[in-house]
């Protein structure tokens, strides 16, 4: 009887994908997330990747609901606890990104209101936005450090894994990669020049396929108004800034919605893992 139990335990942890469509579904979602790396548009890549990431966590949660999965993971308490810890870190990263996007939208709406209504204080509004962007960059730097540490952990855990372990490892890896992309986009392009000194020069008309994100374009338009009294703001510059902020608001709103869905699915998967730990 003991030998039979051990044999069952060994079989249950291997989970061949052809016998377990739920695991195959997780692997298919993993493939779709990874395929987004080849997407030429940074915006399309982020939005599409987040959509697939949401589906990935939903599929993984369904897999975690299987009695066979729960039985197998009862013998992998260390793996489950590591996954729970990693989910907490990833949810923290997701929260930082969501908060930064929401704050950026609020700042843009304030500036748009000033430009539309001719409210005084545009100069101070832009200065406040500059300070806000610096805080966002610090938050994203913190997020990137957190993700880099997780990336090292995932890379060091790649050897001698069975199929289930490898799938979970891949889930963590693609999540880290996705949030890395988002954090980098919010931070803006890297360089030795400050964002202000770089952006007060002539506006670039290159698209994000050429490496200029919508966030950078909006920043450029906003900072071109810096040092200009509201009455002397060129209408062309004001219209350009408003147009870019409005377009960016649509994009950020789309990303925020996808992030909310991802966050919710991550919570559900974490709860499933917690139930496995408490049920063992």
Automatic annotation (TrEMBL):
GO terms for biological process: root development; shoot system development. InterPro entries: BPS1_pln. Residues 10-20 have a biased composition (Polar residues). Pfam families: BPS1. Residues 1-20 are annotated as: Disordered. Coiled coil: none annotated. PANTHER family: EXPRESSED PROTEIN, OS06G0725500 PROTEIN. This is Uncharacterized protein. It comes from Nymphaea colorata (pocket water lily).
């Amino acid at each position: 009887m003991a030998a039979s139990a051990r044999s069952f335990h060994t079989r249950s942890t291997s989970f061949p994908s052809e016998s377990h469509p739920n695991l195959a579904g997780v692997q298919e979602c993993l493939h779709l997330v990874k395929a987004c790396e080849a997407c030429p548009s940074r915006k399309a890549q982020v939005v599409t990747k987040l959509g697939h990431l949401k589906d990935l966590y939903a599929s993984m949660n369904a897999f975690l609901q299987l009695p066979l999965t729960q039985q197998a993971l009862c013998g992998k308490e260390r793996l489950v606890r590591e996954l729970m810890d990693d989910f907490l870190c990833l949810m923290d990263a997701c929260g930082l990104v969501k908060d930064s996007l929401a704050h950026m939208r609020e700042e843009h709406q304030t500036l748009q209101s000033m430009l539309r209504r001719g409210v005084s204080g545009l100069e101070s509004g832009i200065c406040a936005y500059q300070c806000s962007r610096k805080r966002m960059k610090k938050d994203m730097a913190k997020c990137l450090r957190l993700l880099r540490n997780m990336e090292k952990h995932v890379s060091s855990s790649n050897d001698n894994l069975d199929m289930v372990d490898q799938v979970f490892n891949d889930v963590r890896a693609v999540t880290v990669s996705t949030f890395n992309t988002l954090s980098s986009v919010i931070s803006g392009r890297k360089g030795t020049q400050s964002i202000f000194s770089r952006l007060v020069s002539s506006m670039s008309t290159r698209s994000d396929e050429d490496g200029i994100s919508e966030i950078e374009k909006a920043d450029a338009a906003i900072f071109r108004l810096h040092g200009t009294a509201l009455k002397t703001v060129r209408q062309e510059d004001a219209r350009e800034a408003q147009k870019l902020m409005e377009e960016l608001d649509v994009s950020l709103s789309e990303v925020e919605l996808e992030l909310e869905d991802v966050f919710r699915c991550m919570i559900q998967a974490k709860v499933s893992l917690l139930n496995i730990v408490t049920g063992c």
